[in-house]
Specification:
The structure holds two protein chains of two kinds. Chain A has one domain: 3-Layer(aba) Sandwich (Rossmann fold), CATH 3.40.50. Chain A has nine helices and ten strands. The N terminus of chain A is likely disordered. By secondary structure, chain B is an alpha+beta fold. In chain B, the strands form four sheets. In chain B, strands 14, 15, 16, 17, 18, 19, 20, 21, 22, 23, 24 and 25 form a twelve-stranded mixed sheet that branches. Chain B has a six-stranded mixed β-barrel with strand order 4-5-10-7-9-8. In chain B, strands 3-12-1-13 form a four-stranded antiparallel sheet, sandwiched between helices. In chain B, a hairpin with a 5-residue loop joins β21 and β22. Chain B is globular. About 0% of the residues of chain B have low confidence. Classes of the chains: A alpha/beta, B alpha+beta. Chains A and B meet through α2 and α4 of A and α15, α22 and α25 of B.
């Protein structure tokens, strides 16, 4: 298991000492420094092997992913970054079984996603994957609590009540359970969405720009929770973002450009990410100059 | 602005197509009704336009009653043979020939009457006019008095052939045998006008059957060049009706056009109901379109478009949709009208060649279609104009509008309606009760429609409970309750159709219950001898049968009824006279009781009336009244008994000795009380044997009789249901429309649900549950309103004899089941759409 330890100045989220890795003593203050060390024993939660994906055909064809191979370790928080059109969202969609690949294989846990039919994909998403979206995507007709237990209800099962209680408590949503989404703030809505994603104890949670629609404070709360869920609950999270501050909460950042993985950075900080991105821009600019 | 409107419309094609469909259907029916009326009118009048071709004048009896009396064979008021001489003496009259026509009975090979559902008409073949009119087919013309020619329809219905012997009789003539020697057809090679069968006799034979053997005619046809005035003068001014051939033809045609207009009105009525239902659909569609275009409209407003421009842009859209749909509906309506005319000509008028005509009034269908569309769009258009420009900058949040205003308005309108109904029912509207009740019903209807959004909240939750056994069902239920206005207006369309059917079904079932109760509870008889009436003739049987029935083992008593109802008068007022061979026994069977005097062995000059009749006419025991029978005999009768008021025995009862003066001197019904302990079925079989030679009547036991008396009502309900199916189809389109829009609006939600693991099947079920709930809501509401409607009508008619209120339970359950099926069907397309959503695209959907 890969465990990372962070200490934050804002200690709103209670921490469970059992999940702390005593080897790590680095401090994590707001979003400034994130240090992580890979544990020697790793299981792979999600893997892509030689994935190709193109949209359109002929001259209008756009290749979104070119032979992407990447693995995401269990219990790790990975950020996928890259400029617009780099293919980061496409990669996530392919990994999550929301989109099909043209070539290559996607594996989640011990199941091969590639080639599954709609039924099996649906079941996979229901049982093994959690989603957090930029737009929250809560059902307006359901209360916060009903939204949290929605995937279990759809599956016709009951979410583990103790576990759900714990998540709700961690996310400080106890007072909001009977509220409808329209009665909640954006940050609260996204926290409900986070709880929903974790309620079924999925193998992996995919978060697509989870802070994109939030103010800084709410965004920080959400990122803290994601961090906590990795540290304390051993949750695997793959997050697509374009925000270096958000990426700094991750254990690792995978950079995509033009459909290919161009950099794989461990223990990112906001500064190191920004540096890397500047570097990319220069590279891209140089490439364009060359082409011109 | 128009450009923007058109571009916008192009992007909402599916929605507009569904809306248009409703307009198309409504317009189609209205147009079809116009075409049908006009086509049948022309075709039917064309049929008789040449009825008197070659005939220069027609003389007929004046009184309207004479037309009926003809059928019963009364000789009074017909044209005596001497009149023919008077007529031929008039200057210019070359020839005059007398025609005899009336309803007769022919017994088929099976011992029952020929032509079960239409009468048999007899006439004299010698009349020149008749010979001109009918086309002789084969055989020879009737020459001897026992020879007849028959219509091809007669042969087809009876199974007889040329050379066969047929027994024919009428109310006034005993049975006689005739030989079929020839066959004829109606003009245009038709075998019948409307299902009737025909027999042509020699004049003496026809008179024997139809004019009590007297040498009189029901019409005289004149030939030559003369003045009808002079003929009239010669006959004693105003004594008879004298017309030219053309005038007589026109009059016939006019009579027939009544039939076609009645049919047309019925279709028009249902077409207008369909249009009315469409209004809900159109309002709903435009409301949703406006809500979805809020951002676009706000941008237009921000760029400087005025409110009036926004209103105009929405109305322009309505105008374009309405015009296209109405033109399409008009075209389809012409086709439908043509098809309906063909069908009506073929099945109702035995293969009438239809002369297809499109009247100018058909264009009204266009006006109705376009007008209704624009009017329905006015409210949404005004609402659109209120979109503030700043909405362009904001996240389009559409919180459901509060229901307060509409609920208050609905409550007030409903109260006004019910108050009117209550006042009307309690006779407090100073003679305008019926008007008050009817307008009250209409107003209450509108009020309840306004209240549907608020009613939908608890009712949808309740109905949803039935579906909440699965989580998807629960989601469907929540979605159905999400926008009460939209759910309500969608369900309202269904409500109207269901309310109308339920209302009519409730009235009919109340009518049945009333009839059944009157017959079952009050009638102390076990077996009933009666026949099903076909045409103007009333089924009767021979008087002797009464005595034979009385002699049967197991028969305790027999009540019999003779009725004289055409042309009978008491002190100059038209009245229905009844008589019985044994009034004592008959009263007992009916459960009637004597208040004063005695009804045993009524003397020839006595008459028995009930209390109510006595009071109304200010009569008392011992008073004398002047009674005129159908045959013209007038005699003073003395009141020798007064009966207690009682529906079944109220009226005027005369001595059996007067029966010979009745138009139909034969019993029409007999009621048999079976001895206690006797085997009912055995007695029924014996009664059947007694009636073996009575082609017009049969015996039924009480239950069968009730069924026989009420079977026509079931047919009525069925016919109404078929015609209202159109309104239901439009309502279904409304549900489909709403669901499709809901699926569109909730694309992102559906995408999320699919992303977090909802299967396609579950998505399908969720939409289906929503659809079923909307439909059930409409049905439940419609049934409720329909029952209220039926109850109101029953209450209003209680004094007219509609004393029982009964619910059509079977139909109510059927409607509920049908609404579930409708919900399933309406959900098909939207659910398929929801299930097929691309998860990825749906989540990103704006």
């Amino acid at each position: 298991m890969h465990h990372t330890d962070h200490q934050r100045s804002a200690g709103a989220v209670p921490r469970n000492p059992e999940h702390r890795n005593p080897r790590h003593t680095d401090t994590f203050i707001e979003s400034e420094s994130v240090v992580s060390t890979a544990s020697p024993v790793k299981t792979t939660a999600v893997a892509a092997q030689g994935v190709w994906k193109a949209y359109g055909s002929g001259e209008a064809q756009v290749v979104a992913l070119r032979d992407v191979s990447v693995e995401f370790a269990s219990g790790a928080f990975t950020a996928i970054m890259g400029p617009s059109g780099s293919g980061k969202s496409t990669l996530m969609h392919c990994l999550a079984g929301l989109d099909t690949t043209d070539r290559g294989t996607v594996i989640i846990g011990d199941s091969t996603v590639t080639g599954l039919g709609d039924k099996a994909l649906t079941k996979l998403r229901r049982d093994k994957i959690g989603f957090i979206f930029q737009q929250f995507n809560l059902l307006p007709t359901l209360t916060a609590e009903e939204n949290i237990t929605l995937p279990a209800a759809i599956a016709g099962t009951k979410a583990d009540p103790d576990w759900v209680k714990r998540i709700i408590h961690t996310l400080d949503l106890t007072d909001r359970l009977s509220h409808k989404p329209t009665e909640l703030s954006g940050g609260q809505q996204q926290r409900v969405a986070c709880a929903r994603a974790l309620a079924t104890r999925p193998d992996v949670v995919f978060a697509d720009e989870p802070t994109g629609n939030l103010d800084t404070r709410s965004g920080t709360e959400v990122l803290n929770f994601l961090r906590t869920s990795v540290d304390d609950f051993g949750q695997t999270i793959v997050m697509v973002t374009h925000d270096p501050t958000a990426a700094a909460y991750a254990d690792r950042v995978v950079f995509l450009a033009d459909g290919q993985i161009v950099e794989d950075m461990a223990d990112p900080t906001a500064d190191s990410v920004i540096d890397k991105m500047k570097h990319f821009e220069e590279l891209v600019a140089a490439a364009q100059e060359e082409a011109a | 602005m128009l450009r923007a409107t058109l571009k916008g419309m192009a992007s909402r094609k599916a929605r507009l197509v569904l809306t248009s469909l409703a307009i198309v259907l409504g317009t189609m029916f209205v147009a079809a009704a116009m075409v049908l009326t006009s086509t049948m009118d022309k075709s039917l009048s064309g049929l008789v336009a040449d009825a008197y071709e070659g005939v220069d004048g027609v003389v007929t009896p004046t009184s309207a009653d004479a037309q009926f009396e003809e059928g019963f064979g009364s000789a009074s008021n017909l044209i005596p043979a001497e009149a023919l001489d008077t007529i031929t003496a008039v200057d210019g009259v070359d020839a005059a020939d007398g025609a005899v026509e009336g309803q007769i009975n022919a017994i088929g090979p099976n011992g029952k009457l020929v032509g079960t559902f239409a009468p048999t008409i007899g006439f004299n073949w010698e009349s020149n006019a008749n010979q001109e009119f009918y086309g002789f087919q084969e055989g020879t013309e009737p020459a001897a008095d026992d020879e007849i020619a028959v219509s091809t329809k007669f042969l087809a219905d009876s199974g007889f052939d040329i050379g066969d012997r047929v027994t024919v009789y009428s109310y006034t003539a005993d049975r006689a045998e005739f030989t079929i020697v020839g066959v004829f057809n109606l003009p245009g090679d038709r075998d019948s006008m409307a299902g009737e069968t025909m027999i042509a006799f020699t004049t003496p034979a026809a008179q024997q059957l139809m004019t009590k053997g007297e040498d009189v005619y029901s019409a005289v046809y004149l030939y030559g060049d003369f003045s009808t005035d002079e003929v009239d003068q010669a006959l004693g001014a105003g004594e008879y009706k004298v017309q030219t051939g053309q005038e007589a033809s026109d009059e016939l045609a006019q009579g027939l056009s009544v039939i076609s207009s009645v049919m047309g009105y019925i279709f028009l009525g249902f077409g207008l109901i369909a249009v009315f239902v469409s209004v809900f659909l159109i309002i709903n569609t435009f409301t949703i379109i406006v809500a979805q275009r809020q951002r676009e409209l706000a941008v237009l407003r921000a760029m400087g478009a005025g409110r009036d421009q926004v209103v105009r842009s929405v109305l322009a859209e309505a105008l374009i949709v309405g015009t296209i749909a109405s033109i399409l509906g008009l075209g389809l309506g012409l086709l439908l009208g043509w098809g309906l005319s063909l069908a009506v000509g073929e099945f109702m008028f035995s293969g009438l060649a239809v002369q297809f005509t499109v009247p100018a009034t058909t264009l009204w269908a266009l006006v109705v279609g376009i007008g209704v569309t624009i009017l329905s769009a006015v409210v949404p258009a005004v609402r659109a104009s209120r979109v503030p420009p700043v909405a362009a900058m904001r996240e389009a949040a559409n919180p459901p509008k509060p229901l307060r205003t509409i609920t208050i308005a609905g409550a007030v309108v409903t109260l006004v309606g019910t108050a009117l109904i209550a006042l009307g029912l309690s006779d407090n509207l100073g003679g305008e009760e019926l008007l008050g009740i009817l307008s009250g019903v209409g107003i209450a209807f509108v009020g309840i429609t306004l209240l549907t959004p608020i009613i939908s909240k608890p009712l949808v939750s309740f109905l949803g409970l039935l579906m909440s056994w699965s989580f998807t069902g629960k989601l469907g239920k929540l979605n159905a309750g999400r926008n009460p206005r939209r759910t309500a207006i969608t369900a309202s369309a269904l409500m109207i159709a269901v309310a109308l059917i339920t209302g009519i079904a409730t009235i009919v079932s109340s009518l049945k219950a009333t009839t059944a109760e009157a017959l079952e509870l009050n009638l102390d008889s076990d077996l009933i001898v009666s026949g099903l009436q076909t045409g103007a003739n009333i089924p009767t049987f021979a008087s002797e049968r009464i005595d034979e029935l009385k002699a049967l083992d197991g028969v305790e008593s027999v009540g019999d009824v003779y009725v004289d109802f055409m042309g009978a008068e008491v002190d100059g007022e038209g009245e229905i006279l009844s008589s019985s061979q044994d009034l004592d026994a008959t009263l007992k069977v009916f459960g009637g009781t004597v208040s004063e005097g005695s009804v045993t062995d009524l003397a020839a000059d006595s008459v028995v009336i009930d209390e109510g009749t006595a009071e109304k006419n200010d009569l008392a025991l011992g008073d004398t009244v002047e009674v005129t029978f159908s045959d013209g005999t007038t005699t003073p009768l003395r009141i020798t008994a007064i009966l207690d008021g009682y529906d079944l025995t109220d009226g005027w009862w005369v001595s059996p000795e007067q029966i010979e003066h009745f138009a139909i001197p034969k019993p029409m019904q007999a009621y048999i009380a079976v001895t206690d302990g006797a085997d009912l079925l055995a007695v029924q079989a014996d009664v059947e044997d007694v009636l073996a030679d009575e082609p017009e009547v049969g015996v039924t036991n009480n239950a069968e009789f009730v069924e026989q008396q009420t079977s026509g009502l079931d047919t009525l309900v069925n016919a109404v249901q078929i015609l209202l199916a159109l309104a239901i189809i439009i309502a279904i389109i409304g549900v489909v429309n709403t669901l499709v829009l809901s699926v569109l609006e909730r694309t992102r939600e559906l995408g999320l649900l699919r992303a977090v693991g909802m299967t396609r099947g579950q998505a399908w079920r969720m939409i289906t549950v929503e659809s079923i709930i909307i439909c059930l809501f409409g049905a439940v509401l419609g049934i409720g309103v329909g029952i209220g409607l039926g109850w109101t009508v029953q209450q209003a008619l209680e004094s007219e004899g509609l004393t029982n209120f009964a619910l059509p339970w079977g139909l109510i359950v059927t409607y509920l089941l049908v609404s579930v099926v409708v919900g399933l069907l309406a959900a098909l397309a939207p659910a398929a759409r929801a299930a097929k959503l691309n998860v990825l695209g749906a989540i990103a959907y704006e």
